[in-house]
Amino acid sequence: MAEDGFRSGFVAVVGRPNAGKSSLINAVAGAKLSIVSWHPNTTRRALRTVTTGEGFELILVDTPGTTQGQAGLGKMLAGVAEEEMGNADFSLAVVDASRGVAGKDALLLDRLGERDLVVLTKIDLVPRPRLLELLAELSRWSLGEYLLASSKTGEGVGEVRGALVSRLPFGPRMYDPNTRVDQPLLLWIGDLVREQLLRHLRDELPHAVECRAEEVEEGTVDVVIYVERESQKGIVIGSGGSVLAAVRRAVNRRMPSGLSVQLRVKVASNWQHDPKRLAEFGY
User: Fold this and answer.
1) Are 69 and 75 in contact (CB under 8 A)?
2) Which of 43, 80, 87, 204 has the fewest CB atoms in 10 Å of its CB?
């Protein structure tokens, strides 16, 4: 039964790869819940983060970038964003102010309507006169509201949160008050390992790595890191195991109490275009 005047709902957070969706979600939630990396396409699955406050429950759905390729993994990721936009109460389109409003942004905005919002992110990187130009450019779309925010400095984040909450429908609480992320633990751990690999490998393996947390035994989570070619194993492992060791330390600092990870590397040839492998990996 809904509390009197309580608001709750789902917001699909959409935008081009690397627009700052995950960083904004973390800023609005006030905690690092969604995976963040400078690499495009870091988010591969819809991740629901739950933010609660006085009289509301806001579920932000982090989605893959909406301009993926049209085959294999890319096609499946594009489908995730489309599905979440259809299921959500409304959408929040994230546009990177430092890159301007590109044609790919326009394609996304064309699919939105008056119930949806737009936020210009990374405004700390853009002079104010340029922001005014971008807002004027965005005004040709008849959307619900246009907002400005910087996840880095925190400017405008409170206004974004307030705008989202004010548009939530009245309804019951959908999660336990202590829930922050709606994602199976093993999936979350696999994504956490992949995030740290991207940070340590930088642009050496931007798309060819997948991580699967497969089992837990006596507090140790076995995580298999899949690459597409034998030659990539050495890059992931690092000299003397240095990359794996650094990734393991970084991941373990964020693991739930009593759990740690063990990392292994395997080759799954051309997995991004192999339907059987993609199904096995949960896409």
Assistant:
1) yes
2) 87
